[in-house]
Amino acid sequence: MRALHKFFSLTSQDRLLLVRAFGRLVEATIVVHFLPYRVLRGRLEENPICSNAQSGEAAAKRVVWAIEAVGRRMPGATCLVKALAARSMLARCGYATDLRIGVSKDAAKRFIAHAWLEWRGSILLGGEQSPLQYEMMDLRPRSMGSG
Question: In terms of DSSP H, where are the helices of the chain?
Answer without folding.
Answer: 2-8, 12-34, 37-45, 57-71, 79-92, 130-133
